Amino acid sequence: MGTNDLASFAKDDDDAKRRFEAAAKIDPLPRVAPALLNSADIEEYVKLTGMVFPFEPRPEMKKLKSASYEVDFLGDLHIVDPVNGYQKVVIRADHDYRLPKNSISFLFTRATFRLPDYIAARFNLRITHVHAGLLLGTGPLIDPGFAGRLLIPLHNLTSEDYIIKGGHGVIWVEFTKLSDNVSWKATSDRTGAYQRFDDKKWYMSAEDYFEKAFKGRDSTVPVGAVRPARSSIPGEINDAKQSAKRAEDYVWWLTKVGIGAIVAILVSAGLVTFTIYSLVQDAVKNVGDASNVISDYRDAQNTLERRLSTLEEELKQRREKKELPPAPKNPAAAPAGTKSVP
User: Fold this and answer.
1) How many CB atoms neighbour CB 178 within 10 A?
2) For 139, what's the count of Cα atoms within 13 Å in the CB-facing half-sphere?
3) Which 8-state DSSP code applies to residue 47?
4) Taking the complete model, does pTM exceed 0.85, yes or no?
5) Quick check: 148 and 204 in contact, CB under 8 A?
6) Reported CATH class of domain 3-181+197-231
7) How far apart are CA 177 and CA 121, in angstroms?
8) Residues 123 and 71 sit within 8 Å (Cβ to Cβ)
9) In terms of C-beta density within 10 A (0-12 exposed, 13-18 middle, 19 or more buried), how is residue 184 classed?
10) Are 55 and 9 in contact (CB under 8 A)?
11) Is residue 115 within 8 Å of 146, Cβ to Cβ?
């Protein structure tokens, strides 16, 4: 790309703003079909609409890929450090910056985006940062008609501080052209009402974003005093440490102070166990003795029943031999003074 090509881009932010205002509602490249823009179309739209400023098109800088553009780690860094509290830092090129472990930091990009009504954008974290443990909400949509700088949350959920260098790539942005509408393409047959982005939301500051996020959540916080959201992880880790410390202290107390009580409890438990065992053994013995008595009684009863049966048989035989008188049919009617013999 030569010098003339570079000169065709906006020379400053005011120039980019003028290009945006002129092309926001009129598509200068109607021949480009609604689709994910390739690198050539990204360049053309940046030239004509000022949709990204500053923009680095030179191939040797490797900011453009086939269908996305890399945005550098430059701008304002809002750090929420669990140890040092909230800090706001202006990022300088080639300086190292620390994203505290288990924290959320917010990058307010130096790059300004001005999207025409017919172009939307999405961004994702550079993959090298992802592999190193940094996280970003996947694919946030930048609405068509948006104008301003991006506020990007960077989640360092690792157990180590993350070092990132100013001026190096941080996110890749892709641009998508919307389906046709007569609002920006006169030859379009699609005349439905298009809902434009509210220009009152243009050029919001990072503090504006924080205020909007916390609006209505805590009425006790004065205007201008809102700070970025904190990660819950440090608090959870601290709670876990406190719980572990309490458990450690309790074990120490049991070991050093409560050993006598533990011994007394164990001895008492042993005595109670022995007493219960003795009672159970006695109960078992008594039950056994009772079972033996019942068995002896049943044997004697069986013997008596067999003897009675033998006597009845013998009496029957003697009556049949007439050795004894027959048994009276109605013993209750026997003469007074006599005994009935069965």
Assistant:
1) 16
2) 1
3) H
4) no
5) yes
6) mainly beta
7) 9
8) yes
9) buried
10) yes
11) yes
Exposure of 14 by Cβ count < 10 A (0-12 exposed, 13-18 middle, 19+ buried)?
exposed
Instruction: Give the residue carrying structure tokens 């017919």.
Output: 118
DSSP class per residue in 11-72 = SSHHHHHHHHHHHSSS-S-TTSPSSB--HHHHHHHHHHH--EES----GGGT-EETTEEEEE
Rounded Cα distance, 124 and 130, in Å: 10
From the CB of residue 71, how many other CB atoms can be counted at a distance below 10 Å?
Answer: 26
Cα gap 261→204, rounded to integer Å: 67
Q: Would you call 124 helix, strand, or coil by DSSP? A: strand
**Counting runs of H as helices and runs of E as strands, what totals does the chain give?**
7, 13
On whether the CB atoms of residues 170 and 71 are closer than 8 A, the answer is yes
**Max Cα distance, the chain (Å):** 158
What does the domain layout of the chain look like in residue ranges?
A: 3-181+197-231, 260-325
Amino acid at position 183, single letter: S
- 39-49 vs 13-23: helix axis angle to the nearest 10? 100
Q: Enter the tokens of residue 3.
A: 């010098």
Helix (H, G, I), strand (E, B) or coil at 325: coil
Nearest to 124 by CA among 65, 50, 43: 65
In whole angstroms, give the CA distance from residue 162 to residue 84.
Answer: 16
List the chain pLDDT tens, one digit each, 342 residues. 544 577 899 999 999 999 999 999 999 999 999 999 999 999 999 999 999 999 999 999 999 999 999 999 999 999 988 777 889 999 999 999 999 998 899 999 999 999 999 999 999 999 899 888 888 866 689 999 999 999 999 999 888 999 999 999 999 999 999 999 999 998 898 888 999 999 999 999 999 988 888 775 555 555 455 556 555 455 554 555 566 566 566 556 556 656 666 666 777 777 767 777 776 676 666 666 666 667 766 777 778 778 788 888 878 888 777 777 776 665 544 444 444 444
Q: Which two tokens stand for residue 266?
A: 């164990």
Show the tokens assigned to 168: 């190096």
